[in-house]
Amino acid sequence: xxxxxxxxxxxxxxxxxxxxxxxxxxxxxxxxxxxxxxxxxxxxxxxxxxxxxxxxxxxxxxxxxxxxxxxxxxxxxxxxxxxxxxxxxxxxxxxxxxxxxxxxxxxxxxxxxxxxxxxxxxxxxxxxxxxxxxxxxxxxxxxxxxxxxxxxxxxxxxxxxxxxxxxxxxxxxxxxxxxxxxxxxxxxxxxxxxxxxxxxxxxxxxxxxxxxxxxxxxxxxxxxxxxxxxxxxxxxxxxxxxxxxxxxxxxxxxxxxxxxxxxxxxxxxxxxxxxxxxxxxxxxxxxxxxxxxxxxxxxxxxxxxxxxxxxxxxxxxxxxxxxxxxxxxxxxxxxxxxxxxxxxxxxxxxxxxxxxxxxxxxxxxxxxxxxxxxxxxxxxxxxxxxxxxxxxxxxxxxxxxxxxxxxxxxxxxxxxxxxxxxxxxxxxxxxxxxxxxxxxxxxxxxxxxxxxxxxxxxxxxxxxxxxxxxxxxxxxxxxxxxxxxxxxxxxxxxxxxxxxxxxxxxxxxxxxxxxxxxxxxxxxxxxxxxxxxxxxxxxxxxxxxxxxxxxxxxxxxxxxxxxxxxxxxxxxxxxxxxxxxxxxxxxxxxxxxxxxxxxxxxxxxxxxxxxxxxxxxxxxxxxxxxxxxxxxxxxxxxxxxxxxxxxxxxxxxxxxxxxxxxxxxxxxxxxxxxxxxxxxxxxxxxxxxxxxxxxxxxxxxxxxxxxxxxxxxxxxxxxxx
Length: 721
What we know:
Blueprint: H1 6-11, H2 41-55, H3 63-93, H4 106-138, E1 141-144, H5 151-165, E2 172-173, E3 188-195, E4 206-210, E5 218-220, H6 223-226, E6 230-234, H7 235-242, E7 251-262, H8 275-286, E8 291-297, H9 302-312, E9 319-322, H10 366-373, E10 376-380, H11 386-397, E11 401-408, H12 416-426, E12 430-435, H13 443-456, E13 459-461, E14 468-469, E15 472-480, E16 483-491, H14 497-502, E17 503-510, H15 513-527, E18 539-541, H16 545-561, E19 567-575, H17 578-590, E20 593-602, E21 615-620, E22 625-626, E23 630-633, E24 640-644, H18 650-654, E25 656-662, H19 666-681, E26 687-690, E27 696-698, H20 710-719
Parallel strand pairs: 1-6, 8-9, 11-12, 12-13, 14-25, 17-22, 19-20, 20-21
Antiparallel strand pairs: 2-4, 3-4, 3-7, 5-6, 7-8, 10-17, 11-15, 15-16, 16-17, 18-25, 19-23, 21-26, 23-24, 24-25, 26-27
């Protein structure tokens, strides 16, 4: 391929709808590829959200789980606008300059997002109204509208409004003395049109009524009024039905719900003196960030929506008209109907940690004796999170344990992990917690955890300013026979029991000296000062991880060029880092077989002639959120396999503290390879494949092919152990 001029590169900012397997890509003088060799990050993330939405239409999922997928999509889109769209708007304001590998300017990205997001959200409400709600109604689960209430139900709803709702409502008139109120991010509000004069003789024609966040959005009607059926009414309907009672003597001519989405990203400078105090200030600012989206219902008159757009200084393509509640996440309700949910399963205890496998000569230190004898792998949620908690609890009460060190990314004060760390400190152990306060949307919770642990006597540090601590590490230091021995847990996911039931993640328990020594060095680096940790086993971002991955791919290229088998399999949440993408393109052209299992984002274009014909990209969306990160390299038969905390993204590889750890035990190696990689490559039901045009196509079993669902296979396999 020939080098192209800058002018020609700029012409390729916009990707055509032609068959990109025939894309006329170019190689630049610096070794990088032309803009059209990459998929835009934001548009790829939006495609992932659409794959989640598609689950709501899949009748093989239980009905209430389909509703849950619809709610997840709504929550995902909220964050997408709060963070990704808001970020593009900021870039647009600051110059509209293309900075991403695909060469698209922020204005172009925002235009494409608006087109795709409007279609996706219209589809979301179509699914709700035409599929989910009718199916729920067949099960006598109903969200009743105002005009569907019986007379007795209407009386109860009015009484509920008078006693529970009206006392906490604050209607705000819009007049010269009352300017438009400053509304909190994602809050539910009503704009009311009025006729007549108020008590002071003012001719008021508009008012705002914010819905209190302290009230439930879904209200279950009493069994006596529904014969015990799951009949509910939305708070928005209750307010709408009785809003006239807030304006006595005036006529309500219209009541329309709306919701404003704001920029919720936090902006902390690298030179803050106290990160916790600075973060607390930023959390308040998040509630009133830059406006990015306005949602109204489809029956909202144009003059009202135009008025709101003008008030919020938003463009018409930032207006989303929805046929239903403006916040579907509020439809979530704990229905006690097991037949409409996934079949519950037992989170299995790994055999090595079962009581009958403990060392009978050392009952007080059974988990430690097991770890001395062998490495143990847990695969959540199929395996229980209990061993992680038990190890900490045992360490907290073990007189031989001297110190405990732990990273925490997402947690809460009620977490058993946090409680065990506090107990250990109270029992006189030297306990250190490295808490990443900036875990997005969990900042307030993490500040509370930090305060709680400090009060218990734990040494709390906040990692490195400018680098999020994303590594998942636990280290226990124990004195045994007058010698110091270390025990470690390394994971791909957060120390969060709730996540461990919903996310797929790996955790490795080990007492191997080389591995635990590396973990010790990383903690020393996080809590002290000095040069980067000189580790021997783990790969460590932002220092050695990226360079090592590049070298591993180079090794596969070398083997392929020598006519040997060369194979790379990677399972991560996202692939955006340009140098790794370019190296994978190089590897494909050298003949390396590359299989990528990506949960969400792919900026790489697979299956493009001459560029990436040997690269295959798939995504698996199912019951559990895929979260494991696994990197495999054939290496001429001397196979390499790593699990870790890092996705293949710029932020993980260069701006976070991450650890990837080798799987060296042959039995565990095969387990991760089989269950964590090959198993997902065999999925022909929940898998989606990416083509060179950036389109995701859902897999379907071929004729005579047996349906294969990777997560179901893991459930079946582990429950037999």
